[in-house]
Amino acid sequence: MPIDAAAPYDESNVFARILRGEIPARTVYEDEHSLAFHDINPAAPVHILVIPKGAYVSWDDFSERASEAEIAAFVRAVGHVARSQGLASPGYRLLVNVGADGGQEVPHLHVHIFGGRRLGPMLSR
Ligand code: 5GP
């Protein structure tokens, strides 16, 4: 069910629960500001989610409220994870769904990293 982008941060969302260690995740990277783990329902041979540790509902929320340090760390974390998975040279795709029209289902900002095969066209028409 797509989220309501205007809703306040929901501390019970599944990624908040992963950050608190209440449910497991297959972590691939962690630093002060960011966490990366495998998607539970992969849509490509490599499908990793990178999330900020701060309580941000969406890209819209993060880009407006996050500190320079959080933003810099998050962008570097996404690049680092893709490189560490061997994706830089064959290439990969980043995707961020934002709000209802974007199809965002989990109300904590996450960047999808897809790779491991030719991914085809960006969107179906
Ligand atoms: P969205 O549609 O919000 O952009 O993507 C949410 C993603 O979170 C989906 O790809 C879904 O498979 C993934 N996901 C949902 N629940 C869990 C979970 O409990 N653990 C992990 N690792 N991924 C999850």
SSE arrangement:
Elements: H1 14-19, E1 27-30, E2 34-38, E3 46-52, H2 59-65, H3 68-84, E4 93-95, H4 99-102, E5 111-115
Antiparallel strand pairs: 1-2, 2-3, 3-5, 4-5
Bound molecules: guanosine-5'-monophosphate.
Structure write-up:
It contains four helices and five strands. The chain has a single domain (14-115), classed as HIT-like (HIT family, subunit A, 2-Layer Sandwich). The longest helix has 17 residues, at 68-84. The model has no long low-confidence stretch (mean pLDDT 96). The protein has 125 residues and is an alpha+beta fold. It is 27% helix and 19% strand. Guanosine-5'-monophosphate is lined by residues 14, 25, 37-41, 97, 103-106.
Number of strands: 5
CATH class: Alpha Beta
The mean pLDDT is: 96
Percentage beta strand = 15-25%
Q: Considering the protein shown, what is the CATH homologous superfamily?
A: HIT-like
Approximate helicity band: 25-40%
CATH topology: HIT family, subunit A
Could you tell me which ligands this complex binds, including any ions or cofactors?
Answer: guanosine-5'-monophosphate
Q: Which series of helices and strands comes N to C?
A: HEEEHHEHE
Shape: globular
Which stretches of 5+ consecutive residues score pLDDT under 50? Answer: none
- CATH architecture annotation: 2-Layer Sandwich
* SS-based class: alpha+beta
Q: Which sheet architecture does the biggest sheet show?
A: 5 strands, antiparallel
User: Given the structure, what is the number of helices?
Assistant: 4
Through-space gap between termini = 22 Å
The structural domain count equals 1
Rounded to an integer, what's the Rg over CA atoms?
14 Å
